[in-house]
Amino acid sequence: MNIFRRKDTSTSSLSNSTSEAASVSSKSSTASTTTSKKGSKLIKCHTPFDKPVNPVKPPVFDLSEEEQKKYDEVLKHFQEHVKKDLPVNDQAGAAKHAVLDEEIAWLTKECFLRYLRASKWRLETAIKRIEETLIWRRTFGVVEIPQHTDPKIIITPELVEEENVTGKNLIVGYDNDNRPCLYLRNGYQNTSPSIKQVQHLVFMLERVIQFMPPGQDTLALLIDFKAAPAHMNLSSKFPSLSISKQVLNILQGHYPERLGKGLFTNIPWIGYTFFKVVGPFIDPYTRSKTIYDQPFENFVPKEQLDKEFNGNLDFEYIHDVYWKEMNVMAERKRENYVKNFHRLGAKVGLSEYDLRLIHNDDSQ
What we know:
Strand 3 and strand 4 form a beta hairpin. The strands form three sheets. Strands 5-6-7-8-9 form a five-stranded mixed β-sheet, covered by helices on one side. Strands 1-2-10 form a three-stranded mixed β-sheet, with no helix packed on it. A two-stranded antiparallel ribbon has the order 3-4. About 35% of the residues lie in helices and about 15% in strands. The chain is of the alpha/beta class. The protein has two domains: about 65-150 and about 330-355, no CATH class; about 160-315, CATH 3.40.525.10.
């Protein structure tokens, strides 16, 4: 897998535990302890967390006889499908290229089940949507096809870094159900509406997926509309309708069933008007997972939650520290996933639980 490799960073696979441990990971040397006004000790933090607080659990695939039959048919279809060449993009008459290992590793058991559920268990619909996403990932630059993908569109840390210099998107901590938390801080917007904003969000989605521990395949999206400090002179405007629609289409079409919980806080009055405008473009199931103006502390352990939301972290975004460490950690997790993929036979339909486990034996 070539996607998301930093040109200036070297990483190695984790090798010192048999599974994602049920404890907060040790922090980098930037961590320290401070005391809040209330007298409680706060943990200074500049980087993501490596593991959730709560123990990880294997997934439970509780399928009916009919659901199992449909899953088996999807699996069989893609076992044959990956033997064929696929278009390198969605343009008419596009050249074709063999399916990459990276794409086979994406075609997991959980992936098939996500698309089946999102398609209300309509077999042909699920298959069609998966095939469309395979082509979209090539077209949008999520997957690089050698000698075909324009280097200018390959979604890398270097491509989107300027979008995150203010820390408007953050991966920090895990919620009570071990979902990695992706924060969108609308008040820290530092660029004008463009395709780069969409590429940046896709990059962060792919990154937060890499932070998922074994047994979890959804994320928590925490959206904070609070304005940035005045001295930063940043925009608090809502994204344009065209950008919002494009993002929603990508989320619903190519990341189905990935949203486990969506939390919104500090919503200004105009925000509710904005939600009414974009509401028709949000599918009912996704809308059912959103929660408005409830304390984040109800859903995220205080050990991994910032003091601004009544947590125990004193989180400070220092771009050069956070951006490098976040990408190093994600790359390490990606390398472990790839190693397990080859260890388990490099085939379609492997479980993401097995692909994310950490093994002591790193020599296989």
